[in-house]
Amino acid sequence: MFSRSLRNYTVLLTLAVTAACSSSPEQNQPPLIVNEHAAQEQLLEEQLQTAIGFIKKGHFYAAEDQLKIIANEARNPTRLRQQALSYLTLLYLNKDNPRANSTLATHSLDQLNVLHNGRQNEQAVLFEALGYALEARIMLEEAQRRAAQSAQQQQQLSQEVQALQMALDQLRRLSLQ
Description:
The chain is mainly α. The protein has helices spanning 2-22, 25-28, 36-57, 60-72, 78-93, 102-116, 122-176.
């Protein structure tokens, strides 16, 4: 009885191996399915990395254009839009950028806030840090404006003092005559 079940097992094993070896490799592989969504997301990720590369190289206008395309397309994944808006905010806060502007940074941060919508995730810390950076930039711009006004006032006062000294010297000369 044992030899009979062993023989049946051997026959089944032989049939399985023969069937496996006789099938072509194309029949065993599932058909290639192209995931269009994944391909689109990969392309957007590459565009985001290209924009980051532009920022590092100082090509701020090209980076801004690329980031705006990613950030403003509502069909793009939220994660990529948030990253693009984060980099846009940083780009507008970058003092080396000729288009550095706290108003544009605030606008980008507002858009990021709308996308963030109070969710607690890894972006929350970044969002908070960008808010602090924006506040610091605004305070810096205000301090620079005040410093420029003070310098202008000091120059004006210096000119007035110089004019008064000249008038005083002229009065002394007249009184000595």
